[in-house]
Amino acid sequence: MKNIFFAYACVSFCMLSCISNPPEEKEPYQRWVGDISFDEKTDDPDFQLCYEEKYIRQYFNFSKGVQYKGEKPAIIRHFKENYKPVQSDQSGLLRIRFIVNCKGETDRFRLMGMNDEYQPMKFDSEISNQLLALTKKMEGWLPVEMDQMDNMTLDYYQYLIFKIHNGEIIEIMP
Amino acid sequence: MKFCLTIIFVTFASLSFAQPNCNYFLHIGDSLKYKACKETENAKGHYQFSKEYQIVMDNTIDIDSTYSYAYRSKSVAYLKSGDFLEWKRLIDLAVKYDPIGNLGYRASCRHQFFKDYGGAIVDIEALSKMTNEDIGHSANGVYHLEVVRALCYSNLGRKQKAIDIIENQLAIEDYMVGIYDYIHLGVLYLELEEFEKAKAYFEKQVEYNDLAENHFYLARALKAQDKIDEAKMELEKTSSLFQKGYVLHDLYVYPDDKIYWSMIEEEKKALD
Lengths: 174, 272
Known about the structure:
A: alpha+beta
């Protein structure tokens, strides 16, 4: 009798445990996919958005493409002249995403890496730190202007993706 | 002409990823997909990046985890924000559940957004083996997938193969020439120093959809043939069209063979 009671108690406990576990929550989405919240550990507290967080757009929202002074040749030149190739067997893509405010200033840089099989990969810090530092030094970002509102300038998300082969940059996107 | 072509291509691109007709699933007796399809209608009016849109697609997947449209719809925001990891996870699921409907799309995104030329070629060639129908166009509708394949081979250094692919495509009866096809083909011939063929295609492009790039690369071909005065005239046309905004354009990326103002200035200096 004691054993039956014990077995019943165990089953009941398990069932209650199952019930008390809430169903798996859906991914807690932010306002928009890829939104970057301020992180006091990594971000510059002096960097100011011109408008509220909810008004940050994407770089392509106004059909003008990437807004950088001198366009792609200037971006390539910046990295070609300053990046020091690293002796490494690492290849893949490294994305650096950040915010450009309405004055063309940048901050909230975030890194993501993958190998050639689209699997997450952490690049050697010699590669990633160098690319991050050089991206932070870029000074040609132009505010996105919205024609419909007297060319008002906006805050927006931008990214650069570096295609790396054995520690060297072979292409830069977008 | 350019405007008309743009409308045609944009319309095609939109249609190629249009909301499916849910009644089709009823017609074929798939009530689960019908229910999932109806759920996606709740995304109407929500921006693809928004949590509201993503949640509708999650609900759709909860109804039918094999509904490829929902995975592809979710993947778009990740693609456009450069999140290759989540994009690939989602688009792979779309391909898994509907390879013919999504392989070409995945291929063109690999080329356009991530310069994954090898991956794009594998996808397009796999798609070609699966169907006897026309394999269709790129995600943005600008290129036939065979031209995307050619651009990928070109970027991998296989110029002659790229030429062969585009020439074969152009030779197909009823093929609707893409708005940039002749430019890319001309550039390929220019790179192989076949200047007369290059010039012929730039001239065709002038008639079809005149852009600054035509005249810029035509100037380079003329310069290589030591026809400096003619090259200078072409560069003047290049500047004029460039300033009017008649250039190769892509909303999201710097496209293949696009020219920039600094390139025009350097070319002018070289000719002086």
